[in-house]
Amino acid sequence: MLAILGASGHGKVLAEIAELTGWENIFFFDDAWPEKKNNGAWQVIGNTQKLLDSLKRYDGVIVAIGNNDIRQKKLKQLQEAKAKVITLIHPSAVISKYSNVGPGSVVVAGAVINPDCNIGSGVIINTCSSVGHDCTIGDAVHICPGARLAGGTEVNNRAWIGVGSSVRQLITIGSDAVVGAGAAVVKDVLSNTTVVGVPAKPKL
Question: What's the pLDDT tens digit per position in 16-47?
Fold first, then answer.
């Protein structure tokens, strides 16, 4: 059985990937329970505490929360409780055998990860995004749909790389930085900074 913490739209994506990769009996947990009882085709059967109290029942656990900070905190809580945290990879994703994807991460349909990449824990590599060779992706990062990272990019913890954005090779993006949708990043981005536009510049 698989437990997914976070009954969100993103959670539906994870549940379907889980089904496609052989998981059966998939259940959601969400802090909106008991008001929220379903997430699409799947049942919501408890909140975070209820999951923590029943971890031994589950062969795998993963967090499906879009907010990077909250996702990281929930994942840490589960890991400290000795949960069997898994990684989910869509069958259509292409991941080099020379790259690593950390626990609690998900690689969605059509995504590509090239050789010698190191992907941290709790990372979302979203639909049809690509991670070039020799990239380092920190923990709880979100690479949004259609984003493109060229080779040697370093993305630090909890950074958000927006939909359809592009990052030039050998760029460093700081922790908690945000790259806006469609932005073209050609210079390093400092931590806690939002950049937008083509070329990307700090948002005023």
Answer: 999 999 999 999 999 999 999 999 999 999 99
Q: Which pair of structure tokens corresponds to residue 22?
A: 């052989």
Q: How far is CA 140 from CA 32, 123, 168, 202, 203, in A?
A: 22, 5, 21, 22, 23
Q: Residue 204 has what pLDDT?
A: 77
Q: Residues 81-92: pLDDT tens digits?
A: 999 999 999 999
Q: CA angle 137-142-144, nearest 5°? A: 120
Which residues are CB-neighbours of 144 under 8 A, at least 6 positions away? 124, 126, 129, 160, 161, 162, 163, 164, 165, 181
Assess contact for 186 and 167: CB atoms under 8 A.
no
Alpha-carbon distance of 166 to 156, in angstroms, equals 16
pTM of the predicted structure, to 2 decimals: 0.96
How many degrees, rounded to 5, is the angle at CA 44 between CA 47 and CA 2? 90
Burial degree of 4 (CB within 10 A; 0-12, 13-18, 19+): buried
CA angle 138, 86, 115 (to 5 degrees): 50
The residues annotated as belonging to the active site are: 133
pLDDT at 2: 98
pLDDT exceeds cutoff 80 at 197? yes
